[in-house]
From TrEMBL:
Residues 27-241 form the MacB-like periplasmic core domain. It comes from Pseudohalioglobus sediminis. The chain crosses the membrane at residues 21-47, 269-295, 316-341, 379-399. Pfam families: FtsX, MacB_PCD. This is Lipoprotein-releasing ABC transporter permease subunit. It is a multi-pass membrane protein.
Length: 413
């Protein structure tokens, strides 16, 4: 038999005639591998789900790119917008003016960001119109100073559509009585909700009103750009930078929001490394199984060596023995992990119904259920990492088996 090593190694792994204690240790090792692999796949899927939720919610309000004036304002923004819309991969362009302000309602004071937009153009560069829960975005085009608030910000201020909010901007008004901060009473014309952090600080006002309140100015601070593909936005905006007039700067969503998504990636990496340690512990439990198996099979090893088996062949037998045990644990772990990751939401609802609790209260969290996105690339990475750790765990016991002296074992046989 030219390929006797895998045959004998797998037979050792699944033989029913093994020592009972060795069998128990082997089962514990495989169970640890199952739990470790399943946990790693499940947690990676949940992290992917959180990343997708974060990306979908936050980037629903954030345009793919920005063109801003380095100093001053863009006066002839209509001509520049027309030029940008003629570029390849650019879908729409919308003007904006943005500044930090203070919102006051009664005794409640809250800092936030006020952005002046064109309601007719804004719907083409972001999903703000789809996130309106009460009122309408078109109210910003109506006469009178009106604004649209994030849902959490409206709850904090205790206002609803039709109520008034005082907005203080970082500008000074000079009067005969002295210098005072500029403030204005604005009527709430709508409330939006994306289920993410912008709900707590973001507000919108019509472009004309914003030019008077945040100015005075006749132009705009910059232009928001939507590209055909979110992930190609950095390349498209970089290509646009070379064709723009001097004094204009270009940014994309990866620069304005990139640190947040990098933090999510880093968190996913750290969690993966921590859970991989569970797999490593399970893999190195195989060491004790193989050490006991080597002690149990010393006579078999000696007989094989006297029949002409090389040391490398004996070593291959016990590597196959250990990998056989690991492969079973990894296979069941992958199956269990994929099943859990694919049904996390259902399992969450089952636990909530069973114990009568709400794990993710929408009043506290931005999500109402645990998101999960299974990526097969993560499953493959987990399988390969587990097999690699298992291979490392088999090397020392296999090396010990290869150095068993046949003469010493068979001396008294």
């Amino acid at each position: 038999m030219r390929h006797y090593a895998p045959f004998i190694g797998l037979r050792y792994s699944f033989s029913r005639k093994r020592n009972r204690f060795t069998s128990v240790i082997a089962m514990v090792s495989m169970l640890g591998m199952v739990i470790g692999v399943a946990s790693l796949i499940t947690v990676l899927s949940v992290m992917n789900g959180f990343g997708e939720e974060l990306r979908g919610r936050i980037l629903s309000l954030v345009p793919h790119g920005f063109v801003e004036s380095g100093a001053g304002e863009i006066r002839d923004w209509q001509a520049l917008a027309g030029q940008l819309e003629q570029a390849a991969d650019v879908v729409a362009v919308s003007p904006f003016i943005s500044d930090k302000v203070i919102f006051t309602s009664g005794r409640t004071i809250r800092g936030g960001v006020l952005t002046a937009i064109d309601p007719q153009r804004e719907g083409r560069v972001s999903r703000i119109p789809q996130t309106i829960t009460s009122g309408s975005l078109e109210s910003l085009s109506q006469p009178g100073f009106k604004l649209v608030l994030g849902a959490s910000l409206a709850r904090i201020l205790g206002v609803a559509v039709g109520d008034r909010v005082e907005v203080t901007v970082p500008r000074l008004t000079v009067t005969p009585l002295g210098i005072f901060p500029r403030s204005k009473q604005l009527e709430v014309g709508g409330i939006f909700e994306v289920g993410a952090q912008p709900d707590t600080f973001q507000a919108y006002i019509g472009l004309d009103d914003g030019q008077r309140l945040l100015g005075p100015r006749s132009g705009v601070q910059g232009l928001q750009v939507r590209t055909r593909d979110l992930y190609s936005a950095p390349r498209v905006m970089q290509a646009l930078a070379g064709a723009l007039p001097p004094g204009l700067t270009v940014k994309d969503w990866s620069q304005t929001q990139g640190s947040l998504f990098q933090a999510v990636k880093m968190e996913k990496l750290m969690v993966s490394l921590l859970l991989l340690s569970v797999v490593a512990v399970a893999a190195f439990n195989i060491v004790s199984t193989l050490v006991m198996s080597v002690a149990e099979k010393r006579r078999d090893i000696a007989v094989l060596r006297t029949m002409g088996a090389r040391a490398s062949g004996v070593m291959a037998i016990f590597v196959a023995h250990g990998l056989g045990l690991a492969a079973v644990g990894i296979s069941f772990g992958v199956l269990l992990g994929v099943l859990i990751a694919s049904n996390v939401s259902s399992l969450t609802r089952f636990v909530e119904d069973l114990f009568g609790v709400k794990l993710f209260d929408p009043a506290v969290y931005f999500i109402s259920e645990l998101p999960s996105t299974l990526e097969w690339s993560d499953v493959i990475a987990v399988v390969l990492a587990s097999l690699f750790l298992s291979l490392l765990a088999t090397l020392y016991p296999a090396w010990r088996a290869a150095h068993v002296a046949p003469a010493e074992v068979l001396r008294y046989e």
